[in-house]
Amino acid sequence: MTERRLTITGAVDAAIRAHGQETYPHECCGALVGTTDGVTAVVSAIVPLPNTTEEGPRRRFLVRPSDYRDAERQAAALGGDLLGFYHSHPDHPARPSQYDLDHAWPTFAYIIVAVAQGTAHDMTVWYLKEDRSSFDEGRLHHGENTDSHSASAVHR
Amino acid sequence: MAKILIPTPLRPYTDKQDAVEASGATIGELLADLTRQHNGLKAHLYNEHGKLRSFVNIYVNDEDIRYLDKEQTPVKAGDTVSIIPSVAGGAPVAEAPVELTGDEYKRYSRHLIMPEVGLDGQKKLKAAKVLCIGAGGLGSPVAMYLAAAGVGTLGIVDFDTVDFSNLQRQILHGTPDVGRPKLASAKDRLNALNPNVHVETYETALTSDNALQLFEPYDVIVDGTDNFPTRYLVNDACVLLGKPNAYGSIFRFEGQASVFATKDGPCYRCLYPEPPPPGLVPSCAEGGVLGVLPGLLGVIQATETIKLILGVGEPLIGRFLIVDALRMKFRELKLRKDPDCPVCGTHPTVTKLIDYEQFCGVKPAAGHSAPSTEHSAPMEITPTELKQRLDRGDKLQIVDVREPHEYQINRIPGSVLIPLGDIPKRFTELDPGAELVMQCKSGARSAKAADFLRSQGYQHVLNLKGGILAWIDQVDPSQPKY
Fold this sequence. Notes:
The complex is a heterodimer of chains A (about 160) and B (about 475).
Chain A: E1 5-8, H1 10-23, E2 29-36, E3 40-49, E4 61-63, H2 65-77, E5 81-90, H3 98-102, E6 109-116, E7 119-128, E8 135-137, E9 139-142
Chain B: E1 2-5, E2 19-22, H1 27-37, H2 41-45, E3 56-60, E4 63-64, E5 80-85, E6 87-89, H3 102-107, H4 109-112, H5 118-127, E7 129-133, H6 139-149, E8 153-157, H7 182-193, E9 198-202, H8 211-215, E10 220-223, H9 228-241, E11 245-251, E12 254-260, H10 268-271, H11 284-287, H12 293-310, E13 319-324, E14 329-334, H13 356-359, E15 380-381, H14 383-392, E16 396-400, H15 404-409, E17 416-417, H16 423-426, E18 435-439, H17 444-455, E19 461-464, H18 467-474
Helix pairs in contact in B: 6-7, 6-12
């Protein structure tokens, strides 16, 4: 299988990092909105969502069904598709955990940003294998902010 | 036929359609039909045991089936069924992955063979951290059963030493432990029971200054306290930190239990926004408690703690269990989260820990002097002073306001017995001109009786400081204590 590729704009990249730094030492989470033709996907905006986990937000995130629905609605309102979700790993590498794997949905892109001592570092993207056995790492491509409309990051 | 709305990540399995039709009389049948029609869906909706995955939410016309009949929820023609994802994940837990040793496989075998616990559940227990507030009546069975069950880290907060009067119910401690710190005997007992458990002890009173820091590393807090200030403190700290509070309390033959301060559940203040007036509710030291009762209630708290850790069953959230051991009846009250709750409501007024002794009226607010100093006449007498005056031949009437069965155990020679509850109807038996010394076990009940008599115009009323216990310590060690 060929490596999947996800393009994010500079504004999206900055918004995800800022969100992870803002919630540090807790995990942040949010939705990725953009367009895809099945091969190439471009994230043009994010929808930051509240982390509603009850298991300790330093190591877990949870997007409730009501917030998921809200994310789908916002994606439609922005004229895009829901492409996946992002979350931060405070003081841990940007690699998916067993917990991430156990809770993953197919087809979605999962962006992970590592936030070490309050500063965002590596950012990676992952896709669940069809047999749920592990993730495939995708390639995160940083696009140019050529289109200012699609590059707008959504704020809460 | 019912319409099923498909979320974005599952549309590749339904030919990109966001809604499909399927038939079935219940949700279970409907989903079975759906997964038959669309290959590949099943692995993502169901786990290897054939159960719906925890992050798959099914709604029938906007009602979550978890609150209906789960997969047995009936479906009518024309209903709309939605599959809505929860999205979860997180960083790897900092500690090394939890594994069981050979000894632990043997030890926990009765857990391991139950699917509700199993190896995964036992690992969750081993990874879990539970903090017990108090190593007394409730804390004893809680800590012992949680240690036996394999909870990996048990914290205990207590600053007391073991007393003979504890042994009737506090099974963490034995006769040779009398006089030792409770934490020392608790640690010995728990280590002997299960050396795999890491026991953390905190020899301190729980206060507003240390509670948040003490609670931080723990997953579940178990409230085994015996007084209102600490109970409100534990509740508020749990709400502020978002940690569940497995609550229990006991008195005489009655007990109460619930799980407070979960995300969507009520807290102790939703039930009791304000504490009772001080002195209205007697403590176990004053009113007594059946020794077995903390066992019963503590085991309920331990059960709820384990369910919270495993994520199984129906926790005692939003339900208040009342146990009557004399009649052996269990009643359950429904509790709702109060949107106006001062600590967990929508607009909380309590956003940090306060002075709980003051809140509960146990000590006067800063700047206010205690009412007792307003009187010029002396209010109290110590046992030593009383003995000196009796030896001098002063005419003093000692009034014992305890219960008859307490009076049987020990008494001050020459005292008359009028139980506190009988004082209002029998006080006229007492000579208003005489000098009265009110006495009970430790001085709380007799202080109330003294206040009452003063309010009735009695001029010369003293309260025996420390009650009969202090009398025995200072004057007459030959009598038994209880």
